[in-house]
Write a structure and sequence with these properties.
With about 900 residues, the protein is of the alpha/beta class. The protein has 36 helices and 26 strands. Strand 3 (about 45-55) and strand 4 (about 55-65) form a beta hairpin. Helix 15 crosses helix 16 (about 465-475) and helix 23 (about 645-655) runs antiparallel to helix 24. One of its GO terms (biological process) is DNA modification.
Length: about 900
């Protein structure tokens, strides 16, 4: 069979699965089905490989090419058949609208009626019913997306308006993927429901898929749709459109929105009848490496779920899912992809083609009063920092991880453990007790007017650790079971009810979790987070930290914490150094989450393991290495000839590294380790070891009896070192450090980027923390003890860090003073502004004071006038007054010169 014959065979199969009847020209029977694909059909411009008929009329063509052919240049060939259909055959139009180019493994499609005709990649072919529906539409979906009506902004926050406007601009440009970054608590889901409503009502979208990574987040999203009141109507969203919570393998044909976990959707496409509900309740962030279905599954075309079932797919905080196995779900459908995240990793941005349509970080949300800031208190204990040694001859408790049954054992030799082994292979109850005592004692100083313990969430390392913490908290506080609850997958109570009680009721005051409340779950009254586990991922840490950022009204707060006056911050108690460690955006090595460790070892032994399997194996061996005892390591090295598991993992990664040559030879070498059945069995036996040592040694705090936040001198020194070291790397710092002064204009985007990078570098580099630190060290030079929370204060802080000869004052104060001087100078120079012009000048001044500078006319003349237009459009005051167009009418040709001059004058020192 020739390569072209093989391609046509695959194309025939795909067409058949999609509901087409495939015929040869001689066997033409257009009545055989709604959709008929006729091979080698003659046209005036040659023979089309396939002519597609729907309801007896030609609607499109398929150009078939051998596997491996690049298809970008084939569109011209299919195009000539579309315009050359014979007058003797019935057609839907003079020029056929639909064209496919396919090798059977890769397929591209275009609709000639789209405003900007562009081919797009498909997983398979559309069904005949879909093409029939499309040809009856006066406008295509992409044409409708170009003409959405103006957004009704009532009831929306400024950041939500900005996100929706920018997203719809992206749709109008036919960008297939878009990413929205909005800080935790800023209303991402409400934003999504708003634009979903607009897509259904105005773009006439067929159906929208809303994907989350955990079951309780799906239930939360469904509630958001149910409670949403549509603009100008007064009815609820669900009164107009059916919203289906995916809990079975079937998609309701009348549903307009489907909400579910990406795990559920994967199982539906894979043809699995159902999945265990527990699998939907575990976050993808914490999916264990050896988690597996019965066997590995690859998504193939599923006739019950055609590729056109969804026009839009929204992924809400599905970080890992979009790189590995779950990617198949997203790329199966012929749909626009929209990502929602509070903390985008570099890989997330890359997946969405770097089309980040909205950036609204935590710093901006705090400045806008949507989120609250936070303080960090570090709790150190001797064992927590140094580990411990249990002497030989000591009788110790040993607990089975799974049954929790205790036995006693006398140590034959000293047992030394390090801090990172705490609460994993060794539990030291007094270390936990010491941390909780310090937390309890510090509450008096941190919340001096409170008798009620603030709502507190504790992050534990695993379920056993959480169990220990719960019992110790109840003991330390002398309270009953209701006071502190464990909220994990093994709580023994319904987790949704526990979360609801923690959110809305007086009890529990303290909740202990591993992962259940780490991402996405709203607990607005939460005022304290205790980290008793470390987290290396910046993305995951930001998600966990985000649980405390929510604002709440005084009335709602008092309903659960009666003696609280307001929530203006939250507090992080760091017992493990999580706020001090470097966080990364690293890509997970787990690419085969549904293949067990045993199966990976067997595939390695048989030599049938693929690249993704090798990467997963390397990742699991690396994780395994960290939990090994010295005895385990010794046994392993006996089997490998002195090579450690870490070295084996690195050798595997070298095999899949594209920059390292001779990979086939290396793969054979590295897989030799797994030829030894004793080595494979040893790994499995060690993995099954399920015992935890309990150390009853007493612990003591290394921190003092009073809370000790980071010292002001340390904050200032670290900040000034950082900005000097990075002054050539961060655009805003380059500008603020540069000369001449009059060119030191920093735009609002550059200020946002600076604030975000500072906070990621060090949690103490927040405006409020920095201001307090400088106030403590330079009281005579700091003019305002508690400035308003505006992001632009970072400009004043950087300037003061560089040059302390002037006072440190809030940036809006500086801008206001310079604005009044500028107006006087203009008046002296004979320039008198009208009342309307003064109103616009005041709005421009306020924008600079609160957000940062406008793009200058020099930038605009270099092709960036759109940036200036966008600023006028995004600022609510200026937008409501008519935006850039109105400003041009008011100032005429002087608009850009005035903006440039005012910019430079307000920013000058």
């Amino acid at each position: 069979m020739t390569p072209e014959d093989e391609a046509r065979k695959k194309i025939d199969e795909l067409l058949t699965k999609a509901g087409w009847v495939v015929q040869n020209r001689r066997q033409l029977n257009l009545g055989a089905s709604l959709g008929v694909a006729v091979r080698e059909f003659p046209t005036n411009n040659g023979e089309a490989d396939y002519m597609l008929f729907v309801a007896r009329k030609a609607v499109g063509v398929i150009e078939a090419k051998p596997g491996g052919t690049t298809l970008s240049g084939v569109a011209d060939q299919s195009g000539k058949y579309m315009t050359g259909a014979s007058e003797n055959i019935p057609t839907i139009d003079d020029n056929l609208p639909f064209a496919y180019e396919s090798t059977g493994t890769e397929t591209f499609f275009r609709d000639e009626r789209d405003p900007d005709v562009r081919s797009r990649r498909l997983f398979a072919f559309h069904r005949p019913e879909t093409l029939q529906e499309w040809v009856s539409d006066k406008k295509t979906l992409r044409a409708r997306l170009k003409n959405l009506p103006e957004l009704e902004t009532k009831g929306l926050r400024e950041c939500q308006v900005e996100a929706i406007i920018n997203l719809e601009k992206s749709f109008a440009k036919d960008k297939p993927r878009a990413l929205i970054q909005m800080a935790t608590g800023s209303g991402k889901t409400y934003t999504a429901v708003t634009f979903v409503y607009r897509l259904l009502k105005y773009a006439k979208a067929k159906r929208v898929l809303f994907l989350v990574d955990r079951g309780n987040l799906a239930r939360q999203a469904v509630k958001e749709f149910q409670q949403y009141v549509v603009p100008h109507d007064g009815r609820k969203f669900t009164e107009l459109y059916n919203v289906q919570h995916l809990q079975s393998p079937n998609i309701d044909p009348v549903s307009k929105v489907c909400v579910g976990t990406i795990q559920r959707m994967y199982s539906i496409l894979s043809g699995k009848k159902d999945i265990d509900d527990e699998l939907e309740e575990e976050s993808l962030f914490q999916k264990p490496p050896d988690f597996a279905y019965d066997s590995e599954v690859v998504v193939e075309y599923n006739g019950n779920v055609p590729i056109e079932d969804f026009d839009f797919i929204i992924t809400d905080e599905c970080h890992r899912s979009i790189y590995n196995l779950w990617r198949q779900v997203l790329e199966y459908f012929d749909a626009h992809l929209i990502g929602l995240t509070a903390t985008p990793a570099k890989q997330t941005i890359g997946f969405f083609n770097s089309n980040l349509v909205m950036e609204y970080p935590h710093e901006r949300a705090v400045a806008d009063g949507i989120n609250v800031g936070y303080d960090v208190y570090r709790i150190k204990t001797q064992i927590g920092e140094e580990g411990n040694t249990i002497k030989a001859g000591t009788t110790i408790d040993v607990r089975d991880r799974q049954t929790r049954q205790l036995r006693w054992e006398e140590l034959e030799e000293d047992l030394t453990y390090k801090p990172d082994e705490l609460d994993r292979s060794v539990v030291t109850p007094d270390q936990i007790r010491t941390v909780i005592k310090v937390y309890k004692n510090w509450l008096v100083d941190i919340f001096p007017d409170r008798e009620t313990i603030p709502k507190t969430l504790v992050f534990a390392k695993d379920d056993n650790h959480a169990e220990e913490i719960v019992h110790i908290i109840r003991e330390v506080f002398g309270k009953g079971n209701e006071f502190c609850k464990k909220i994990t997958y093994r709580s023994g109570e319904k987790t949704d009810d526990l979360i609801q009680s923690f959110r809305n009721s007086y009890f529990p005051r303290i909740a202990v979790t591993v992962d259940m409340i780490s991402t996405g779950t709203d607990i607005k009254p939460l005022e304290c987070l205790i980290f008793m586990r470390d987290v290396k991922s910046r993305v995951y840490f930001e998600q966990m930290k985000g649980r405390g950022t929510r604002t709440i009204s005084t009335t709602d707060l008092k309903s659960v914490t009666p003696d609280a006056e307001y929530k203006n911050r939250f507090v992080i108690f760091d017992a493990v150094g999580v706020t001090e460690n470097v966080k990364t955006d690293s890509r997970t090595l787990e690419r085969k989450p549904f293949v067990s460790f045993k199966d990976l070892l067997e595939k390695a032994a048989l030599g049938t393991i693929d690249e993704d399997g090798l990467v997963s194996l390397a990742g699991r061996l690396s994780k395994f290495e960290r939990s090994l005892t010295p005895e385990d390591k010794q046994q392993i090295e006996k089997k490998t000839g002195g090579v450690t598991l870490k070295q084996v993992a690195n050798e595997i990664l070298d095999v899949v590294d594209p920059d390292i040559p001779a990979k086939e030879v290396q793969q054979k070498e590295v897989l030799k380790y797994f030829d030894n059945p004793d080595f494979r069995q040893l790994l499995l036996d060690i993995k099954r070891k399920n015992e935890i040592v309990i150390d009853l040694s007493p612990d003591q705090p290394l921190s003092g009896g009073k809370p000790e936040p980071v010292q002001p001198s340390q904050v200032v020194e670290s900040f000034e070192d950082y900005i000097k070291k990075h002054q050539d790397e961060i655009t805003a710092l380059q500008i603020l450090f540069s000369k001449p002064y009059k060119k030191r204009v920093v735009t609002y985007q550059q200020i946002q980027d600076l604030a975000e990078q500072l906070t990621h570098a060090n949690v103490s580099f927040q405006n409020e923390t920095l201001w307090n630190a400088y106030r403590n060290l330079y009281k005579a030079k700091v003019r305002n003890a508690k400035p308003d929370r505006v992001l632009t204060n970072i400009v004043s802080l950087v300037r003061f860090a560089v040059d302390k000869s002037h006072d440190l004052e809030p940036f809006p104060t500086t801008v206001e003073e310079r604005y009044q001087i500028w107006l006087k100078d203009q008046h002296k120079g004979g320039m008198d502004f009208s009342e309307e012009q003064m109103e616009w000048l005041t709005m421009i001044k306020d924008f600079v004071a609160e957000k940062g500078g406008f793009p200058t006319s020099a930038e605009a003349s270099a092709g960036r006038e759109d940036d200036l237009v966008e600023v006028f459009q995004l600022d609510p005051k200026m937008r409501d007054r008519g935006g850039y167009i109105k400003a041009q009418q008011v100032f005429g040709t002087q608009l850009q010169p005035i903006v440039q001059e005012l910019n430079q004058y307000l920013f000058a020192e």
